[in-house]
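Collaborator request, handled under Task 6.
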Amino acid sequence: MFGFKRRGAASGRGGGRSALVPIPLTGGLLSGQVRDEEGRPVPGAEVSVLDRSNRRVAHSDSDPFGCFTAAVAPGDYRVRAEYGGFQSVAASVVVDWGRHAELGDITMVPDPSLEPPAPGVYEIDSDHSAVRFVARHIALSKVYGRFNDFRGTIHIEDPFEDSIVEVVIDAASVDTNVEARDAHLRSADFLDVERFPQLRFTSTRFTRRAGNNWLVDGELTLHGLTSDVQLDTTFLGVQEWNGMRAGVLATTELHREHFTLNWQQVLSRGVPVVGSTIAIELDVQAVYKG
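Structure tokens returned to the collaborator:
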């Protein structure tokens, strides 16, 4: 079962266990560590501290070791831990003035509704999916764009780690809602769509992180060059609507220089017109085909 497992009694200012941060003069401290059911730390879990009126008085994400700390006024609190793919868990705690309340291990169990989809072939529904990108412009604002034409399949295997993703994107379908800019992106300065009409991604490995979060390693072919890419992927669940559908959100960053997309103008103070790092977001809905 999930819950909070206390490590021992709370320690005061002179206690045998040291607090993670100094205890405030007018309050107390609470801390804990988020783990999964196998005892592994869960980094990035959302931890909220709620007072008796259910008002959130402290909020943080667990660190790479699953740990969190919050300094609060003395009183009664409820601590809630949440992480994608897990059932949320909450417990009560009393924080005394000048003391450190240790919650101990916070154990979370998977949410069965977010288990990986059944094995089979899933075809990406481009009408309900998106391939978006964001680039920095003259270090001041962001330019948002997308590719409108793409297709792909997701082969779900058992075990899930053996699954494969294949995606093909029409380079000429780049769209930033500015015709002149899109024409420049299609030119030899950037995508050179006449010579390289497609972008291709093929996965090479699936690695489970925690809950419904996965790392998908693969190879992206862009502008005639192939480079390793890692997608930070969140499985959003399965729904029945005109067939069985699975949802996935994936993000990554690309460096233009890795694909020789080296066109650049620099302002008088050395500020680049286009940033070298491009953020990518894939919002995917795929339909089960058997």
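The cover message to the collaborator said: "The CA atoms of residues 201 and 220 lie 4 Å apart. The first strand starts at residue 3 and ends at 5. Please let us know whether this matches your experimental observations."
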